[in-house]
């Protein structure tokens, strides 16, 4: 069974696929992913594709002309045909607009997960199939393992610091059967070393940061402010109900946030415990009020079968959040489930994704859901 | 064998052009601005080319400004028209532009409108691919300083009614300069007559068998051409920079060759085009032809395939050896939805257009290949 100590070179991602489309962002991970796939199935059977997702200004994502050029030059150096796909309409409709609408509703959406769900592993995966590709490879740090029975499992990447299984935890069997993660068994240092060995121009390129469609000099607040009407709100003490002050824009406040919330009379920091956009109320409380025993999830999706109630799991509530021991429970409401933490955990902001891993194999993704 | 059906993007260099250029690429061609024999030889070559091109475009040599291509010619034209109007009186208050112009005109006009604070009227086209003359006439008011209507649309190939446009402009907007982007017209039509009524005419060499990177702005009349590029004062102070001697010579040779063979080439290519379009319409039930074929240049075949993403179709065609295109591409190489189809009221098909453009080298075998490959590719995507 593949594990972190899996000896190389015997790639866990070995593939029977004949023609492979590699999503190349212009970053180092997908550059090396392309190289590995090309070495495996031959450059003539590999096409590199860069997605143009964002028509607006961007400096940190995968959509700038400079990034496309990096991807194209790397693909050319590997002997691959390179293409650019314009999926910006889909990205606007399925990622950006829901992100804005989520904030308008007081949620904290994760657009990177939506992009994986709707763009890379839906629109692009479908396109790959229509264009005659057997598989889609990406540079994600995660591993797909296929059991002898033909069932696919999704495992954390070999580099714990770079593991991206959290943002892939919505993948199911159908998608996993058609994807490859060629660098999932490598550490980031190994990826960079391999890129350098191959003389790739992307070898020392910094990792992309944050939300690709929000320019760092603009920031989330201004971006959202240009797309939705922001409303002032008031801070309310979660315990006493006393009004404590105001916030500039209730839509920009996240459950669990402490920045800008001040300190309680006892001098301890205050945390946001709830946001109600309609009434403009932001409830805050002491650190213990920001903790919770459980989180309810909607829209659950599973890598394989759904775990029955009572199943012990490990929950991860943000991209780099700690693994939390928990148990899956029923909620009594169709299409939802409850994740009960063994120890109280930081309250999960509604809209955030919670990824669940197997308690007896905490590298193995079970599935995910979105916090209610 | 590949089928190259993207001549409207660029067409192979004609042997006459290559031959004419070689001495200026391989020998000691001087800088035409110099005072020695090598410079004089280069200057003479440029002057000869200018006279030949002026003759073929229906201009006087002094009206020919050499540029780096169609985009620069369009930009220079817009700049000239808007800068001039600002200088000798009130600032321009209105610009008129057809909505099916090439991006080189659209964006130059956009920028000029923003810079001068002018009103910009966009004139739509009908489903036939022809600019709406009534809307154009309505937009032509006395304060208009520039009207831009192309001679032939680059995507759907329709020949625009330049004479009628000019009549409307002269009657209703007497201050206006008329810019006719003739980049796509030059391989197929007599620019001298088609764009004859225009004040400003842009052409690009690589569309008619010359090299890329060289073009012409014809600037008629006494309207001053304020340069975009300043420096050594070349091109009578209208465009600074050492002229691209080889390119200019090649452009002249290509235009001569294209003009001399135009009628025969157009007749031959139109027959191929008709066979191609009719064959595709018969083979693909969801296909429809864009625009009025009787008003198109010979080399243009444009179809839409409802429900098909052109971006995917083009990949399959490329894989199968057919070089084709769709709407405009952005700098990264991604396909943009067609603003031309949108302006024609076909916005729902703006991502489903296929342009197969034929040219002077197109063979029956290339058309046969496309007739075989396109229906297969569409069927695969419809699955």
Can you describe this structure?
The complex is a heterodimer of chains A (372) and B (383). Chain A has three domains: 20-197, Rossmann fold; 230-285, Roll (SH3 type barrels); 292-371, Translation factors (Elongation Factor Tu (Ef-tu), domain 3, Beta Barrel). In chain A, the strands form three sheets. In chain A, strands 12-15-14-13-16-17 form a six-stranded antiparallel β-barrel. In chain A, strands 3-2-1-4-7 form a five-stranded parallel β-sheet, sandwiched between helices. Chain A contains seven helices and 17 strands. Chain A is an alpha/beta fold. In chain A, α1 crosses α6 (188-197) and α3 packs antiparallel against α4 (111-130). Chain A has helices at residues 28-41, 65-77, 88-104, 111-130, 173-176, 188-197, 219-227; strands spanning 20-23, 46-52, 81-86, 135-137, 142-146, 152-156, 179-180, 233-237, 243-247, 271-276, 281-285, 291-302, 312-316, 324-329, 336-346, 353-358, 361-371. The relative contact order of chain A is 0.13. Chain B has 383 residues and is of the alpha/beta class. Chain B has two domains: 3-10 and 262-382, Aspartate Aminotransferase, domain 1; 15-256, Type I PLP-dependent aspartate aminotransferase-like (Major domain) (Aspartate Aminotransferase, domain 2), CATH 3.40.640. In chain B, β6 (177-181), α7 (191-194) and β7 (200-204) form a beta-alpha-beta unit. In chain B, α9 (245-283) crosses α12 (364-382). The interface between A and B is medium-sized, with 16 and 18 residues.
